[in-house]
Hints:
Blueprint: E1 6-13, H1 17-28, E2 33-37, H2 43-48, H3 50-67, H4 83-107, E3 111-114, E4 116-120, E5 124-128, E6 134-144, E7 148-150, E8 163-164, H5 166-169, E9 178-182, H6 186-198, E10 201-206, H7 217-229, E11 233-236, E12 240-246, E13 249-254, E14 258-262, E15 264-267, E16 271-273, E17 306-308, H8 319-322
Parallel strand pairs: 1-2, 1-6, 2-3, 6-17, 8-15, 9-10, 9-15, 10-11
Antiparallel strand pairs: 4-5, 5-6, 7-16, 12-13, 13-14
Helix pairs in contact: 3-4, 3-6
Amino acid sequence: MVPTAENFDVVVVGGGPGGYAAALYGAAAGLNVAMVEKDKVGGTCLHRGCIPAKELLETASVFRSVGSADRYGVKVGPAELDFSTTMARKQQVIDQLHKGLTGLVKSRKISVFAGTGTLGPERTVTVTGADGDTAELVGRHVILAAGSVARTIPGFDVDGKVVLTSDEVFELTELPSRVAVIGGGAIGCEFASMMADLGSQVTVLEALPQILPGVDKDVVAVTLRAFKGRNIDVRTGVKVEGHDPREGGTTVRFGDGEALDVDAVIVSVGRRPWSDTLGLDGTGVKVDDRGFIAVDEWVPHRRGRRVGGGRRHRHPGPGPRRLRRGHPRGEADPR
């Protein structure tokens, strides 16, 4: 026990869906809970993931519907997109949800610590703030839910202007006219669909034989038909070799000597666990070569009162769903 540390029943490292859901559940059960978040409560999902993606997809759907309204006898004139208004509404939705979430966390009397949390021996979490100040927390239980970050690929250095990940897409100020989406998974297909509906010329480059790996073939077929009808060019089984930047865009090299001139490249090749900032020295917590925390079939780490949550461990499904693991009623074993 660290004499100068603050003591809690549960310390949650990470304020995303896995982390805040666990914190809220623990607080509702009467536990004294601390949550450590280095950015904003809500995590990637709320600020740079699910929520802004669905908001922009809804905008794209409305724009597409208005553009084809005359087919239904509705005369509205040519549809025009005000992209600045689109992005302002996206941020408004995020801010409203963030306000509600922080209010809920506060009402449950969860102690929120701003900074990066690292786990040390004896379930001690050191919080390092942006200004370098530190605080030490000790939890009877510790939940690691630090989330994930976008993967990148060699030769495509993210600059936020021409080469983007999902983080930068949601900060665009102008819609690029021609876009290459590298990666045909769920996230890549969402971006391809959204940008094509808003007016961009989109090409999807996927290294595997089909887009949406692991998804039922019938679903893939429906997606491909929908993409074809919206002039989204899908190239599968192609390896991206690199790109040659130029003023206002770049030329992507792929496949057997093929090249594609675009205004922006979206690298969408999945996400990796953000476990490199967790410390873990002397804790007995094991991390595999992909950055995932090793857990048992009940999710808690095998040694002591530590749990891997969110995207930290290999368990399918959204963060909140993972919290239902460990007990038939979704309650963690208190031992």
